[in-house]
Amino acid sequence: MDAMAEIRQTFFEECAEQLAELEAGLLAIENGEADSDTVNAVFRAVHSIKGGAGAFCLDDLVHFAHVFETTLDEMRSGRLDSSEKVVKIMLRSADALADLVTVARDGGTADAERNAGLIDELKGLVALAKGEEPPAPTAAAGGGASDGPVYDDGMGDIDFTPVAVDLSDLMGIGGDNKFRIVFKPSPRMYAKANEANRVLRDVYALGEAKVSCNTSEVPHLTAIDPEGAYLTFTIELSTAEPEEKVREVFEFVEFDCDLSIEAIHDAPDGDIEADDPDIAEILARIRATPDDEPTPAKTDEAEEEAPVAAKANQPEPEPEQAKAAPQPAKPAAPSAPAAAKADAAGDGKGGAGVGGAAQTIRVDLERVDRLIDLVGELVIHQVMLSQRAYQAGLARASDVAVGFDELEQLTREIQDSVMAIRAQPVKSVFQRLPRLVREVADISGKQVRLVTEGEWTEVDKTVIERLADPLTHMIRNAIDHGLEKPEDRLAAGKAEEGVVRVAAMHRSGRIVIEISDDGAGINRKRVKEIAIKKGLVPAEANLSDEETDNLIFLPGFSTADKISSLSGRGVGMDVVKRSIQALGGRVSIASRPGKGSTFTMSLPLTLAVLDGMIVSVGDQTVVVPLTAIIETLQPKASEVKSFGGDARLVQVRDTFMPLVDVARELGYSHELASATGGVAILVEAENGARSALLVDGIQGQRQVVIKSLEANYGRVPGIAAATILGDGRVALILDVDAVVATSRVEGNFFNSGMKHAAE
């Protein structure tokens, strides 16, 4: 990949972050949190996207972002209120901006008519803030053709006659307040799409200014870093504005430059001019042989680690400005890829940024996956070495054995640290939900309030990426099928506004996500009637409430009377179940008629490692996930009760629970194993039901590396994944819930109906 392609890729990665920040900020404003910090964060997000897009000549993106940014500036200045109507326009504009970024990255065409209409709406908001008449719609908004982006400020295409103007009228007026400003940009400033010439232009607008440029740090031509920053600007400003207004000019660059602003009493007056050094003199000096003159040292060591991001965006720099705005420095290691460039948070001057903000680094996900795989192999070989050492007769108290124990502890710490790299909060998924809820509520004509909890609950990045689709289906289902119409809620004595709650939490080494609503609950009678009518279950099936609720996960099942944009095709909840199962998770339902329903998704925290108990089943070795195990015991003959042929119960204290013969369920044996000759492992399913798994014996407990059986071989009922043991053998990881559920429904009408539906 060439350098420009790396920069472009990094730009789009940063666009994704800026778009997420933009939407989060707009949603916060919608919820009444329109404080200055939130509005400024939203403004900066759009400004950064516009600046980066300018470097790649993405004209449509730049134009739309410019109009959007102008509107946000009116809100930032307090002239535009953050009303519901205004925020809705901005949220739709954020969607359009995201679409333009996608088109710029992947190709294709944007919806020009929609974008032109949004531009007109944004310009109308600007006119409203200024107390002016809204501009006439553009040609594209009215359905006409457009010859390309027109960079105006809101008044559309206007015929005019050019006239001569006196540019001095555009300059600022001097005043009694005089300041001396020393402004030295760093590479970070240009990496964030800010430009020195724009900053200086804003200073000019404050009053009379005299600018000089210090070029003493410019090295010989052969030693110049094209992404370095070597110029220092000294500005003597005479203005009527206070110091706060002067500092506002540098608001977006103050942490990415060396800045000094001091009030002076004898500042020289004079016409506005820039004392640029003689270009010929500079060129002659930097071309001189540098043998007798060392290259000036960098004053900011953190410049070595500045992020590449979007290069300094100067579409058409003037000669002196081209030198005033060089690109940021490359990382010290020349072989480091763009994906691993430092993405410094805060001021980036080594260590934590302003307010103690931690620094971060952007790394290609494939590299992290490769590292995790290697650590997994390290764990396998560490276990293998330890096992062979003990088999060789080394005493556990020997120095070698102690060394292996220390190696095991160190390996575990390395593995935990590497896994933590992939851990991310589910907030990235949750922050997409408010928009979804609002859109579905508008389509269905319902009033809905979304409540989220546990946004900072961390889970593996791979799990997060695959949560979006199941959550989307379940939220749509909760609003469309769960919540009643406002008039129906009022008639039932409920609030007109329905509530959908999404909560994430850690439980028993897994992440649990609950989606609940306060709607009417599941109409079990109607669900069963529809299932029988569609041939999904036999008419004579005797189903429990739990089994009836689970009918909605069958392919082709739908309670909608007609097909709509939200539902009716019988595709959705079965997709949810398959998606969750593909992640090694489970989904369950709890519903109370008239009170609402709760869908619970239980997922592994990571798809890479697992704490398990190694057990013998027949002549095979199986791993039982430790998170599902409550206790182990050896049943006595008096505690085992038989009923219904081969079914058995085991008494544990005052409770009877099913005894599941694992070897028989997995097909390792066709004979019923002796209950008193093995070990019973008490497990708890996700729905809270308890069972006892009968195995031949327990070998031990250890952490194993998960290998996908489905990806490398195929899906096996009752098996979640596989792993490699210390002796090199492959062991299967048991899907406890699947084995327990199969044993519970085997042979009844419901199971027959499920098999019929699968066929």
From TrEMBL:
Keywords: ATP-binding, Chemotaxis, Kinase, Nucleotide-binding, Phosphoprotein, Transferase, Two-component regulatory system. Residues 356-607 form the Histidine kinase domain. One of its GO terms (molecular function) is phosphorelay sensor kinase activity. It comes from the Bacteria. One of its GO terms (cellular component) is cytoplasm. It is an enzyme of class 2 (transferase). Residues 1-104 form the HPt domain. Residues 287-355 are annotated as: Disordered. GO terms for biological process: chemotaxis. This is Chemotaxis protein CheA. It comes from Jiella avicenniae.
